[in-house]
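INFO batch 0412 | record 1 of 1 | parsing
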Amino acid sequence: MRFDQGEFDIRCEWGIAGVRHFAANSDAIVIVDVLSFSTCVAIAVGQGAVVYPYRWQDESAASYANTLGAVLAGSRRQSLSGYSLSPASLLNIPAGTRLVLPSPNGATLSLATGPVPTFAGCLRNAQALAQALPQVGPRISLIPAGERWPDGSLRPAFEDVIGAGAIIHRLAGRKSPEAAMAEGAFLHFRAQLPDCLRHCSSGKELIDRGFARDVEVAAVLDQETCAPVLRAGAYVSYMA
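INFO prediction complete | emitting tokens
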């Protein structure tokens, strides 16, 4: 198929359409949602937590958490557990915590990949992923999650293409033009990641809402040493 970038080892495409086009011919898929799902997963799993992605932040999420004996991450401003889709809220999460993490973007994509080994990627764990992914296989597909416009259509997000590019840069293999573009964007902005994330649309939105610390945390490169992989519905460390 012309859209699956199948002649290349390292591929890159946006959102749910990218998942659907790549799943059949990928050894691994990486969901990149820098602000903030993938960054939250990388931090929490790096601390020894187990993270269950969930599509919706509603009553069904609470029921799901109860069936698992897990803690439910709430909204940034109204979280009973203290944990939320805020990377900063997870920096000190205790090892062994079972956390249900609702997210309309990153979690939805994570749960759409079927049997393909699925990883959560961001700037903080780019190097760790680049070390783990070749052990799964050579055909690696990066999925920048993007955000949503008010009409529900995909809004390509600067931070997600940069996050994908950070991982792609560390991977060997033939790279599609789309993957090479993401890599080039990362290399261009690498020396100014914190400033760029503060000034991109998603970063400005979070800062305006009072969550500048989340942007700061997400902009750190190669801080985590763990590669979170989805197993039995939960993200755990690939090496666990």
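INFO post-check: The two ends are 36 Å apart (CA to CA).
INFO record closed
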